[in-house]
Amino acid sequence: MTQNDHAGATGFVNDTTLLLDLDGVSVVRVERLADGGRRVHLVTADERARACPACGVFATRAKGSAVTRPRDLPYGESGLEFRWHKRRWWCREAGCPRRSFTEQIPQIPAGARLTARLRGAAGRRIRDAGSTVIQAARDLHLSWPTVMEAFRTQARDVTEAPLPQVAVLGVDETRRGRPSWERDADTGKWRLTRDRWHTGFVDALGHGGLLGQVEGRTVADVLDWRRGIGYVAIDMSATYRAAIRIGLPHATVVVDHFHVVQLANKMLSMVRRRTTAETRGRRGRASDPEWKARRRLLRNREDLTDDQFATMRNTLPGEGKMGQTLLTAWIAKENLRTLLALARTGADRHQVGNARWKFLTWCADSDIPEVRQLAATVDRWWPEVAAFIDTGHSNAKSEGINRVIKLVARNAFGFRNAENQRLRTRCVTTRRARGHVRTAQL
Ligand SMILES: [Zn+2]
Questions:
Q1: Quick check: 229 pLDDT over 50?
Q2: Is residue 257 helix, strand or coil?
């Protein structure tokens, strides 16, 4: 058989054609090259390739032939080289502006240098496998722009898909790259010149992953994610709270308890540093009892053994006023934790009110400015804290997604283009929702 016998034929199937499994072409022969590679000679096996791209009429008069070298998926260790022997046709339809054309098939459109399935695989490596663009380009022997373009095409499935129903929205910020500072030549003062952020919106209850990101973190940046959202879980950010009150006036803002406890721990460290400086006239040293206790101070009561707790309770007051101050501050933190621990216990209004009162009066009576400051902050955020105790909703998913966002940025060695970064982030954080993180099941 010669190649010409197959040009334009349909349904021509041999084992090699079946093995290659590329729609629209048949394998005529395969040759071994001197460098160990293989060259595959293809002919068209799709009648529609004869249709004129301008008028759609099937051509009948051949004009000649042409050979192209489309690239395909790697196959085996040495890969394959294609030679597609295709026909040129005359279009003899009256009034058609196109006089002649060469064959094309959906897998290899006119002018395409890659098969559609190679392009698709390249894009899906980024979209679903969390690969970097550069790594996919290396693996598939493609250029960076080609892979990026393929990814953008594949990512449309993610960005154009309808958003899932969201009952609890998580809002969080992620720093984009490092902040940069510049010294003012006149005043000698350092000035922040670049500090870029993304604000992310997360399905905090379901498995929708990252719903979207916007650049920046001001009120105007925060989108109006409206219908169906009953609660919004955030860190203790006054900006986000203000934005949500404007954008989602019907939603209840829930403050993440983790950040409330973090605030109490910060307070403890501040008290320890200040009292050490006041009492000892210097910074803390490893030999100071309060320095030794610094980690225990940040631990929770239930994470301390009875011995550790007894040591702390007994040695700190021995340090006079400083020890008393630290113990008072620690108890304030524990009272706050006790209050937060009422979340999802079915505690009634009375029990919550009691725990709140205990925390606030302890702080007020303490006479320690940092402790009183903590009480004032918690009181200012009381509706949001109460909403947490009521519902137990947290922003933990935002934190988890933030980790993935940073991992993607690190793998890519940073992103110059913020839009590319958001697209990559959106795809990699919605893989679970799209069913792409499962391994084969036995
Ligand atoms: Zn035509």
A1: yes
A2: helix
**Which residues fall within 8 angstroms of residue 116, CB to CB, at 6 or more apart?**
106, 107, 108, 109
Please compute, for residue 91, the number of CA atoms within 13 A of its CA located in the half-sphere on the CB side.
21
In this predicted structure, the answer to whether residue 10 has a pLDDT above a threshold of 50 is: no
Distance 15 CA to ligand 1 centre (A): 35
Taking a 5 Å cut-off on Cβ, the residues next to ion ligand 1 are 52, 54-55, 91, 93, 96, 98
- Lowest mean per-residue pLDDT among 81-90, 218-227, 408-417, 424-433: 218-227
Q: Ligand 1: distance of its center to the CA of 12 in Å?
A: 26
Q: From CA 196, how far away is CA 234, in angstroms rounded? A: 19
Return the percent helix, strand and coil in the chain, to nearest 5. 45, 20, 35
pLDDT over 60 at 184, yes or no: yes
pLDDT band at 318 (very low <50, low <70, confident <90, very high): low
Give distance in angstroms: CA of 333 to centre of ligand 1.
Answer: 80
Tokens 């809002």, residue located: 171
On the question of pLDDT at 3 being above 50, the answer is no
Q: How many CB atoms lie within 10 A of CB 240?
A: 21
Alpha-carbon distance 358 to 343, whole Å? 17
Dihedral sign, Cα of residue 319, residue 362, residue 344, residue 243: negative
Average pLDDT of the residues of the chain: 84
pLDDT value at position 226?
56
Residue 103 Cα to ligand 1 midpoint, Å, equals: 13
pLDDT > 70 fraction of the chain, expressed in percent and rounded: 91
Task: Compute φ and ψ for 87, nearest 5 degrees.
Answer: -95, 150
pLDDT of the residue at 212? 74
Taking the centre of ligand 1 as the mean of its atom positions, its distance from the CA of residue 58, in whole angstroms, is 8
CATH architecture of 168-256+395-429: 2-Layer Sandwich (3.30)
CA of 104 to the centre of ligand 1 (A): 14
The 10 Å CB-count burial string (b at 16+, else e) for 4-36 is: eebbbeeebeeeebeebebebbbbbeeeeeeee
Q: 76 falls in which pLDDT band (50, 70, 90)? A: confident
Of 43, 58, 41, the C-alpha closest to 9 is: 43
Distance from the alpha carbon of residue 93 to the mean position of ligand 1, in angstroms: 6
Distance in Å, CA 112 to ligand 1 centroid? 20
